[in-house]
Structure formats: C-alpha cells, structure tokens
Design a protein that fits this description.
Elements lengths: L8 E7 L3 H12 L6 E7 L6 H8 L4 E4 L6 H14 L4 E5 L3 E2 L2 H13 L3 E9 L2 E7 L2 E3 L6 E3 L13 E3 L7 E5 L1 H6 L12 H11 L3 E12 L15 H9 L7 H10 L4 H24 L2 H15 L2
Parallel strand pairs: 1-2, 1-4, 2-3, 6-12
Antiparallel strand pairs: 4-11, 5-12, 6-7, 6-11, 8-9, 10-12
Amino acid sequence: MHSYSKPKVGVVIPVFNRKELTLRCLEKLCVDAPSSFRVIVVDSGSMDGTPQAVAEKFSHAVVLHTTPSDWWAAATNAGIRDARQNGCQYVLTCNDDNQATASAVEKLVEVAEKHPDSIVAATVCDLNSTDTVIFAGRRRSRVTDRFIYMDHFRSYEKTGRGLREVDLLHGKCTLFPVSVFTTVGLFDEKVFPHLFADDDLVLRAKQKGYRLLVDLDTVILNDQSTTGLNPYDRRLGAGKILELLVSRRSAFQISTRTRFLWRHRRSIVTFIITWLADYLRLAGIIILRWLVPEGMYRKIEQCYLRLLSI
C-alpha cells in the first residue's frame, strides 16, 4: 500500500437509513485502506443511527450531514466538494450496497494514472451469485439512443480481461479524476436528483473528451436485492407498477427518463423511437414475468441479450 502526504482518493458514499448495509460496505472497504484514502460518508438525515454507528466504528471516516431532501446526486456532490477542498486527485463514487476492497480501488487508481483523462469503473458482479456479471460497460445502439449492457448476466469467467472502452459507465464504483468536475461541473442534482445523474455526468464528460473505461480485471460485488425498483427480477403488482412509473427510485420514472433521453438524444426521431421502445419493452417484461416460469423467463432474457449483442 502506498502512502501520500495528502489524501489521493476521496471515496464518497451517500447513505440514508441503511445502517447495517453501510457498516458492511465500510468493513470491506476499510480493511487495509491506505492513508491516501479519504472515506467520506454523506448521510442525508438517517433516523436509524447510521451516522453515529459510522463515527463509532470507523473513526477515520469523515461523516457529512445533509437533509432527507438531498437525494443521491446532492449527497454525492457534497462529498465531492469535501474531496476537492482536501486536495484529493480522484473521487470514487461508491454506493453502500457495494462490497469493494481497498485493493480494488487502488487498481482503479493505477489504471487512471496510466490513462490520463479517463473515467474508470470496476466490473460489478452479483453479491449473491458472484460469477454473474451485473455491469461490464454499456454500448450505444447503432439505430436508437439506447445504451445496451455488455455481458449482462453472463458468467464472469467467460468475459474478457483487460480494459474495455465503452459508451457509458455508472456511479456504483467509478473513479473520476477531479478535473472532470472542473470541466463539466458536478452531478445535476436539480434535473436528475437520483437516478440518471451518474449517466448524465459521464456522458457530459465523454463529450468533453474523457475516455470511459471498464477494468475487467477489477471486480466489486453489489447486492442487487437492495437496489431501487427492478422489474427484471421479480413480479410486480399494480401498486409497484405505478410506483415504477412515478418514483425517483425507479429508472422508468416517466419524467426523469424522458428528460435524460431528450438531453442526450441524437435526433428527434431516435428520441421518439427510443422512448416508445423503452416503455413497450417494460410492458413486455412485466407481462412475461407474470405469464412464464422463472427458468423460461431467464432463457427468453438471454436470447434477447444475445440478439442485442449482434
């Protein structure tokens, strides 16, 4: 492990009322963490004792306080400001449902230093099925404005290795040089307070010339069962379907998704095609989850993903 006179990496972890999850994340991350890490936990008014527990168990972590009205983007921005004020050269955005080690973060830093002006993400696998890839980058469709997951739900053992340049990253466990925030600004907490804030910032950075890289050799684990509203992994009743369309915790919230697609459209035609295709696909997924058994649904899903990869 290296040591630096100033913190080199600000690890920003926004949290809210998930004490056990947050402590589990920090226990994994803080084992053998070097002095070059400034771990910044941004608590948005938790009522379950999260900030107190973090301060007690991880005295070297910085705990910042925001309000419950500050969602992911605003909380993460608060952490970024702290990292910049304290001289960090990089910011790692990290969710509290991750299991990421200090050595994994250091590997991302090594990649970033070899490839200046790059944003680097770890490969993400499922905590409950550690050989299953959740994220290994996204590429943009040639005919629509959709970003398609690469190697999604594929066995990690069957994916490639090395670095992969992609069209879109995420904010789960991604390393940004601080210059990104000077060049393109912080996460847009007003337009995208929660979901799509990471996608939006990464695309703005790409437009300014930053490369988007996935390190296929560096793996972190993510607990999918705690992540937002997900129509892919469960059957949804009428109430959850409505929530899917209106909740900030849903990637299918109509207002937010529409704003994102419009901001990053390639043309009005591709915007319309993509918007219609997204919600028709969502309807198809919801119906399939109710009509077919789990095993058959997964086979259909894999066929669909293979078709997209052609």
